[in-house]
Amino acid sequence: MLDVDSGKLIVPANVVVEGNHIVAINPETAPSVDRTIVLPGMTLLPGFMDLHTHITDDLEGNWVYRNVEEGPIDDALLGVKYARMTLLTGFTTIRDVGASGFADVALMRAIDKGIVDGPRIIPAAHAIGTTGGHCDVTGYAPGILTMGIEEGVADGPDEIVKAIRYQTKYGAKTIKICATAGVLSYEDSVGAQQYSDLELRAAVAEARLQGMKIAAHAHGTEGIIAASNAGVDSIEHGSLLTDEAVAVLRKNGTFLVPTLYQWFVPVELPPVLHEKNEYIKERISESVRRAIKAGVKFAFGTDAGAGPHGRSGEEFTALVGHGMSPLDAIRTATVNAADLMDIEDRGRIKIGLLADIVAVAGNPLENIRLLEDVKFVMKDGKIYKAPD
Fold this sequence. Notes:
Layout: E1 15-18, E2 21-25, E3 42-46, E4 48-53, H1 63-69, H2 72-88, E5 91-96, H3 103-112, E6 120-123, H4 156-169, E7 175-178, H5 197-209, E8 214-218, H6 221-230, E9 234-237, H7 243-252, E10 255-257, H8 271-294, H9 314-321, H10 326-332, H11 335-341, E11 357-361, E12 376-379, E13 382-385
Parallel strand pairs: 4-5, 5-6, 7-8, 8-9, 9-10
Antiparallel strand pairs: 1-2, 3-11, 11-12, 12-13
Helix pairs in contact: 2-3, 4-5, 6-7
């Protein structure tokens, strides 16, 4: 068993689960239990947390046409497939950072009620963005897919406040704001700042008023700095980090969620979007290495949905490949993720915490790629995957 705080492996590891909680670890006397599960040669770890997903989305087929051919009900049903896939790869908690029509909220409720299997979901509902910006739907004729406050498209502090309150009213548990342009949208620049400093501060203030964390999609340096200085809890992507931007993140204690591995997965995109994707891919490695070296706080995110589902463990490998230690990579998806989201009942294998436990065959501190093939998954005391 890996103690993610100390980095020590505890051998042997006998974990006793009662109901949905961990009640003992290596007790002096053998407890009376209904079932014993033996996992020889395996390492137990806390259930992982992916803090950047789009669980009700993917890039299959012609996703430009899908915007008008399919709706939130289709998205929610698609999410049923990907939620189970995500859980079986060892991710027992996810933060979903943008879904249409509250599909992620509906999926969260279905999972919480036990209707379908999946990780716990912290949904953002619609991401908040400017008219014509990354979180708007662009590339269509006027009058087609016109988005408003209800869909998260908001300009100026007053509209931003209304948009956040609307998402909260219908079930959002966290907020995402698009501080800059992006890849999968038709703006000219991938990194241009899209919300003003005043607007960003208004978004942060309202998220705080609602008692929620706020993440900022931000590729470009100016937008990263502005969002961090406004007080967001995390920067998503952070692809164009300079030394100045890294220093600001450190000073403000802002987490970086780099969504690293998905940039290196081949995907078919329209030419203009492909060019932007290649532009980021050439630069994000340097940015992540710079942030690791500077001691920026990292949390784990994959951008699954914009990238492939079911391969989230590859993010650990990508982080280690960019200079992070295996232990620190594991921490991004456990204690660091819990710290970012103020989650106190998960992120460690510890007495009194929820029984979210996964296992891999071998020692992931020696071979991080073991996390790409999780053999055992327990969420909330229930086993969803076990070796034959």
